[in-house]
Amino acid sequence: MVSKEIILELSNLHNRPFLHGTSIIKGILDKLKDEYNIITNFNVRIRKQFYNQPILCITDEIDHNKEGMISGDFYHAGNQIYFHLVESENKVLVDTSADIDLFYNEDDFKSRIVETDLGWFMNFSLTDDIHLCYNVISKISNQYLFSIQPGFVFEPNKQTWFVGYHLPKLDFLENNKGVVGVSREYIMLAKTCMKRKLFFNGDLVGDRICVYG
Hints:
Largest sheet: 11 strands, antiparallel
Distance between the termini: 34 Å
Mean pLDDT: 88
Strand order of the largest sheet: 1-4-6-5-3-10-13-12-11-9-8
CATH architecture of the largest domain: Roll
Radius of gyration: 17 Å
Structural class: alpha+beta
Helix content: 10-25%
CATH class of the largest domain: Alpha Beta
Number of strands: 13
Number of domains: 2
Shape: globular
């Protein structure tokens, strides 16, 4: 069933014991773009934390035994292609560079975020990472949206975690400046699972799923 296996060479964020979801998604997309010139209807779900370098397995049919890990699918040339990740024995490198440190400087991000009736938005440029921008905007606004759910108590020692994307096209990720945004509108997929819309320069570009835990 597996047609190709590729080890992702990822760096970790700030000495975390597990790989951050943003790092994993960037690694997946980088490798897929090396293999496929046009990718549409990209879907991915993260259901398991990885502590070692993942192996990206690309297949021509879904492997239901791997759905409880990190898995997804996309279309290329009219064909649906599936992928899942398994852990290798290779450890990850720790990235403590200055640009990664921005991920943790929430005061800087908060000062750049503009809240509107549609959602939360922020300019990004060459010095930013578009995935991290989406992640920080989501984290800050998720806390508010979860806190207003009936009967929901947001505990200080917990947070929301990115667990999935649906991206009809990937072109917008190649831009090096623009305005990224996450919608105020949301759908509760479960009591602790929320789906929200992603915007780029005012256009709807996909959905992002997070869980509280």
